[in-house]
Amino acid sequence: MFLLDEAEHWLDRGATDTPDTRLAGLTQINAFFENSTRTLLSFEIAGKRLGADVVNMHAAQSSVKKGETLIDTAMTLNAMRADVIVIRHMASGAVRLIADKVDCPVLNAGDGRHEHPTQALLDMLTIRRRRGSVAGQKVVICGDILHSRVARSDILALTALAAEVRVCAPSTLMPKGIERMFVTPFTDFDEAIEDADVVMMLRVQNERMAGGYIPSTREYRMRYGLTAERLKRAKPGALVMHPGPMNRGVEIDSEVADGPQSAITEQVAMGVAVRMACLDVLTRRARKLEGWA
Ligand code: CP
Questions:
Q1: How far, in Å, CA of 271 to CA of 276, rounded?
Q2: What is this structure's pTM?
Q3: Would you say 153 and 163 are in contact if contact means Cβ atoms under 8 Å apart?
């Protein structure tokens, strides 16, 4: 809640307000070992709006390509005296590993199948602003739950904020024991979506399927795609969300993604404010301020 309130502060600021460069003199390194559009750019914009010197390290153009290890990369970034490091990595737990090796705060921009915490924060902010509260909302998350760090982080945030969470996936894309996360699992999307306040769709992550079940596009859309017809089963005016990138015509039809119930572009806008809040709060110690960090 604290970080959501902090993010609201940045959303409320208008174009005519005096620029707030509270991170001036600090160096923010965005080290991305996996592709990204929304997360990388919004962290870069967030840092720059706060006055930080922002440097992006793309793994594809770095010495990682020459075989440098993750730990050596982390030690190198640390030696450059970064004040905050933002990491995206394809391996679950890689961010934790780096955080243990460096002297500055580290922000997780998505690690493997594990977590994507700033995505969950921006999703919570979107729901709170659109629906008034997260508590009590019936939220269905549908798609490739097994490989989704977004699903995991959203489930943790939604249940912490007292939403009622349903998850829906083909049985091969549903993690075993998901009930232990205080959610109700479904394999039938028509049942799961019934009376939902919020419908969150997920991409099928073919890049994380090591020889597992990859459904055909036609079959997947028929059983798990969010079509305009299927959306009618949810509450009237139910919010439609997707973290992006979308596979239009697979997990979501364009008619819905671009329709009046969609909050997808709003999610992106919330991302900048949430990341400004995280950067501000996590650098308070470096700026010798009292605060949550
Ligand atoms: N939602 C999200 O993480 O998108 P990107 O992969 O484009 O950053």
A1: 9
A2: 0.94
A3: no
Share of the chain above pLDDT 70, in %: 95
Residue 175 contacts by C-beta under 8 Å, 6 or more apart in sequence?
145, 146
Burial 142-163 (b: 16+ CB within 10 A, else e): bbbbbbbbbbbbbbbbbbebeb
Asked if 138 and 21 touch (Cβ cutoff 8 Å), the reply is no
Ligand 1 pocket check for 21: Cβ under 6 Å: no
Q: Which of 30, 32, 34, 38 to mutate to test the pocket of ligand 1 (most atoms within 8 A of CB)?
A: 38
* 184: three-class secondary structure by DSSP: strand
What is the structure's pLDDT at 286?
81
Give, for 107, the enclosing helix (H) or strand (E): strand 106-111
- The residues facing 54 across adjacent strands are 28
